[in-house]
Design brief:
By secondary structure, this protein is an all-alpha fold. It has helices spanning 2-18, 21-36, 38-47, 53-73, 88-110, 119-129, 132-143, 152-178, 182-228.
């Protein structure tokens, strides 16, 4: 048992050391180019292999951190959080699950619309498109603590800027990754939203059916126990 654990740890360490850190940091730095030159940036992300999935996942992780920091460090003048009712994992899931569902729905539906993007490229595009959120929101959280109520419009502006910028980048990402026109991208995004809603409804139905099945078998087991014992 101990030998197997040592071998597993050794394999993880070897894998960690073998990573091309220079390529990783270069692809992470490339996100700064993407957010200011999105049309060229996302095209090169797909065709010139300038980005990596690892960098995209790091950006998504930073986005999750920024959402938690926004709740933790934003002044109570702008956000009033009752931490007794907050579950950090639920908060993170509220951001991560929609991204996963949107990515899957976009991949599934764009295959019907002659989309050129793969699942990997779609999630890379989503990750890089989220870059402005942590870059803007983390400093804004601390800035809010020196703002007064009358200066709250500044906080609202930066929050809105982060969201609008990310949405615009996401639009360009899908357009360049799938090699669509603007009109095709609009239709694809509309279909993606509809598909995401369908996926959510199906997941809820499956959860309800599984819950009812579990409840039924538990009740059946109790009935058998009471009858025979």
């Amino acid at each position: 048992m101990k030998t197997n654990v040592k071998k597993s740890v050794s394999a993880i360490v070897t894998r960690f050391k073998s990573l091309d850190w220079k390529c990783f940091f270069s692809s992470l730095k490339y996100a700064f180019h993407v957010i200011v030159h999105p049309f060229d940036g996302f095209w090169d992300l797909k065709h010139e292999k300038r980005g990596t999935l690892a960098a995209a996942l790091v950006i998504i992780a930073l986005t999750l951190v920024a959402s938690i920091w926004q709740m933790q460090f934003t002044s109570f003048l702008f956000i009033n959080v009752n931490w007794n009712q907050v579950n950090i994992w639920t908060q993170m899931a509220q951001i991560l699950l929609p991204l996963i569902i949107i990515g899957i729905a976009n991949w599934a539906l764009t295959t019907l619309f002659d989309g050129k993007g793969t699942m990997k490229e779609i999630f890379m595009g989503i990750g890089y498109a989220l870059t402005p959120y942590p870059l803007i929101m983390i400093p804004t959280c601390f800035l809010s603590n020196v703002l007064t109520t009358d200066e709250g419009a500044l906080y609202t502006f930066f929050t809105g800027l982060a969201i609008v910028w990310c949405v615009f980048l996401l639009f360009v990402a899908f357009m360049k990754i799938h090699e669509y026109t603007v009109g095709q991208t609009v239709l694809a995004l509309f279909a993606t939203i509809v598909g995401a809603v369908v996926i959510v409804v199906l997941l809820l139905l499956i959860c309800c059916m599984v819950s009812e099945a579990i409840t039924y078998f538990i009740s059946l087991g109790r009935e058998l126990l009471l009858r025979f014992y």
